[in-house]
Design a protein that fits this description.
3-stranded antiparallel beta sheet, 2 domains, binds zinc ion
Amino acid sequence: MSLSDRYSTILDKCVGSLATWKNFINENMEGSDKDTQMAKLQQIAEEYCLIDENHKRSENAIKSVDEAITNPLENYSIDELYNKKLEEQPNNDPTTNEIWEQLFNNNASIQEIIPKKKKDKTQYEAVDDSLLCSSSFTAPVDPITKTIIRKPIRNKKCKHVYDNQSIYDYIRQSKNKAKCPYMGCKNNKLVVGDLQEDAQLEEKITQYLQSQANEEDSEDDDDSD
Ligand SMILES: [Zn+2]
C-alpha cells in the first residue's frame, strides 16, 4: 500500500467516524447539549481540514519542485526551492475542504440519493460497536451513505468497497464522470466494468450483523415491555 493510499484510507476512516458522531448528535441530543457537541465536532472537523489542506499544499509543492528541476547538470537547492513553492500554494479556508463539504454541506444530496430506511436498531448498534471494539471484525462503512455496507461491491482497480445500491446510484447520478468516492483515492474513473461482488466479505458482514441482532434479542428478553 503506497503512502498516499494509506493516507486516503486513514482520512476516510476519520471522516466516517466524524459522520457517525454527527448522526449520533442529531438523533440523540437536543438543546444546549446538542449545540455544545456540534461545536466540538465542527472544531475537530476544522482541524482535520487544516491537516488535509497542509498535506495538499506540500504535495503540490513537491510536484512543482519536481517540475522545476529540468536541468540535471545544474545545482539546485532543493530545500530552498521547496520552501519557495510551498509559500506559493494558496492557503484555503478550511471550510472549502472536501471533508467539510462532506460533513456539513452534502447531507441533503446524500439523503436524496438513498431513501432513508426505516430506523433500524441493528444497523445503529452495529456502527456503534464497530467503533468501540477494534479486536473483532469491523463491518465496512459505505463512503457515500456512511452506513454499514450490506451488499459489498469491490472496485478491481483501487480495491475499495462500496454498497451495491449506493455505488450504482452514484454512478448513474454522475453521468459517466464518476470517480471513486473514497476521499483522496486516485482512481478518477469509476466504471461499472471494474466493479464486482465480494461474496466472501458479504458472508462476513451477514454473520456480523446476525451476531449483533442476536445480542440485541437476548438483551430484549431481559426487559419485558
Ligand atoms: Zn478507490
